[in-house]
Write a structure and sequence with these properties.
By secondary structure, the protein is α+β, with helices and mostly antiparallel strands. It contains five helices and eleven strands, in the order βαββββββαββαβαβα. The strands form three sheets. The protein has a six-stranded mixed sheet with strand order 2-5-6-8-9-11, sandwiched between helices. A hairpin with a 2-residue loop joins β3 and β4. It is globular and about 55 Å long.
Length: about 200
C-alpha cells in the first residue's frame, strides 16, 4: 500500500530486513513500546473514570482500492489528508490535554528534528488557549521516561530558530522535565504529574 503526505511526498515506513540483527529487533520493539504503554495507561484512566484521553486518528484519503473479492478490499494507495498535529488529546478535571510522544535512542540529547514545525505551532496555540500541553519523552536505550511541559519545548525550539543548539540535552530534560516511573497499572502515570503541576 502507498501513502503520501499532503504535499505529495511518498511516506516511507521504517522497514526491518528479513534477517535483522538483535540490536534492530530490540529497538524496533522499543519503538512501539511508548505508544503501547500510553494506550494502556489511557485505557486505565478511562476504565477508572480518571480522564478521557485518546490517540488521535491520522486522517487518510483513500485513492486506490483493489477488490479481489466481494468480502475483501485492499487499499493500494492513500494520502495523508493533512499534516498531523500531536499524538494524543482529551480532558482531565475539565481541562483540555494535548500531548506528543517521542522516543530517541540518543543517550545525551533529544534532537529537535524529531518535531515538525506544524506540531510546534499547534502546541503553541494550545498553550495560548491555556490548555495543558506537554511532550512525553522516552530515552529508549536508558529506558527513562519524562514529561516536559510545552512551554519549555517552545523555548528550546525558539532558541534553535535563532541559531542555537539543535537538540535538548538530557540534562535540560532532567532539569525542566518530570520523571515518569514505569508502573504496572497504570504503566506511565503521567496524570499524577499533571495533578501536581496544574492542580
Amino acid at each position: 500500500m502507498t501513502f503520501r503526505y499532503p504535499n505529495g511526498k511518498l511516506y516511507q515506513s521504517k522497514k526491518i530486513t528479513d534477517t535483522p540483527n538483535l540490536k534492530q529487533q530490540i529497538y524496533s520493539n522499543r519503538g512501539m513500546t511508548l505508544e503501547e504503554d500510553l494506550n494502556e495507561t489511557n485505557k486505565y484512566y478511562l476504565t477508572y473514570k480518571q480522564a478521557v484521553i485518546h490517540k488521535k486518528p491520522t486522517p487518510v484519503q483513500i485513492v486506490n482500492v483493489d477488490f479481489p473479492k466481494r468480502s475483501a478490499a485492499v487499499i493500494k494507495e492513500a494520502y495523508f489528508k493533512q499534516a498531523s498535529t500531536t499524538d494524543y488529546n482529551g480532558i482531565y478535571k475539565g481541562r483540555y490535554i494535548d500531548f506528543e510522544a517521542k522516543e530517541t535512542r540518543n543517550k545525551t540529547a533529544l534532537p529537535l528534528q524529531n518535531f515538525h514545525n506544524h506540531q510546534i505551532e499547534h502546541m503553541r496555540d494550545v498553550v495560548q488557549q491555556q490548555g495543558i500541553c506537554f511532550v512525553i519523552l522516552r530515552f529508549s536505550s536508558l529506558d527513562e521516561v519524562y514529561l516536559l511541559e510545552a512551554i519549555h519545548l517552545l523555548t528550546f525550539w525558539d532558541r534553535q530558530q535563532q541559531g542555537g543548539r539543535k537538540s535538548i540535552s538530557k540534562k535540560e530534560v532532567e532539569t525542566f522535565g518530570h520523571t515518569i516511573p514505569m508502573g504496572y497499572n497504570p504503566r506511565l502515570d503521567y496524570i499524577k504529574i499533571i495533578e501536581r503541576i496544574y492542580f
